[in-house]
Structure formats: C-alpha cells, structure tokens
Write a structure and sequence with these properties.
Elements (H helix, E strand, L loop, with lengths): L12 H19 L10 H18 L2 H8 L2
C-alpha cells in the first residue's frame, strides 16, 4: 500500500488516504510515463479538502472546544 503522512485529524484520515492512493497511482502509472499531465484526483482532493475544512472550522467554534475536550 501507499504510506504517506497522516492527516492532521483522525476524521480526515480516510479522505486523505483515498487522495494519496489516487495520486500515487496517477503519478506512477500516468504522469511519470508521460501518459497524462492532468491530475485525475481532483475529486478525491476536494473530498479531503472538505473534511479538513469542516474539522478545522469545527475546532474553531465553542462547540469544537467541547468536542476536543470530550474526545
């Protein structure tokens, strides 16, 4: 499997893993072989970005502070 850095929050681990897997496959099978320069993982990146933004925004609210304390 593909092992890259962990996400900053466990809630984002799956979307980040999906993106990392997609990117590694595209990079190795298409980009490095000059078959494609278009990153085909934009959708999985947006899923990770959405999860990241949600967790980041939640942690900046008073509810997020309670959530962190009770984790």
């Amino acid at each position: 499997g593909n092992v890259l850095s962990a996400s900053f929050a466990p809630e984002c681990d799956l979307p980040k893993k999906n993106y990392d897997d997609c990117f590694a496959k595209w990079y190795g099978e298409k980009f490095l072989q000059a078959k494609s320069v278009h990153n085909e993982c934009e959708d999985t990146w947006r899923e990770y970005e959405t999860a990241y933004t949600y967790v980041k925004d939640l942690s900046n609210t008073s509810l997020g502070s309670v959530w962190k304390k009770n984790k």
